[in-house]
Amino acid sequence: MKILLVEDDSRLAETLAEALTDQLYVVDTALEAESALEYIKASDYDLLLLDVMLPELDGISFCSLLRSRGYQMPILMVTARDTVSDKISGLDAGADDYIVKPVDLGELFARIRALFRRSSKSSPPVLEWGTLRLDPSTCEVSYAETSIYLTSKEYCILELILRYGRRLISRRDIIQHIWPTEEAVEEDTVKVHVRSLRQKLKAAGAPENLIETVHGRGYRLREAN
Predict the structure, then answer these.
(1) Which of 77, 103, 133, 186 could be stapled to 90 by a disulfide with Cβ–Cβ 3.0 to 4.6 Å?
(2) What is the pTM of this model?
């Protein structure tokens, strides 16, 4: 499941992105509405986690803009304002739910799960490549019906690569998706996770080169038989 987090407080954004990634969500982070809109134009998101107090265009106006342009993904507003009128403004702008700062992570995760259940995307399509199968709704991975147990980072990397298929995804792009707010992550970290992922896939019976390396460019999946 893919979430776009729009939060101008970089420290809070880092905390939330890390917590969501640990819950096996793929997270992109934008610090203001303009860059968030570019993300939305370029990719499909299962949920938008949107701060109200953004620079330039505020979250309520941005929510209204998205709805006016036909975007239907669930929107969960994050706000420091907890008056009834503020909540009504957000809901009237097209938000599906709201949560008040300071954010309790348990409540946040519960509200996200509830939105996914209510959403038309509550049962996202299973990602398959040959006999490799990843179910985003249950976070289960298998190869030829053999279950594969992955760490949260391995799972997120595999989901990304499956979504790209034969298209190349660079290590830098993987870092931006999986570690969106951590500047110190090196490309060697991605190599380590991909190596471990390949070993687990191979142990389940997958070809050793199911995830191909195109030197100097990134990764892609081998042609499915």
Answers:
(1) 77
(2) 0.64
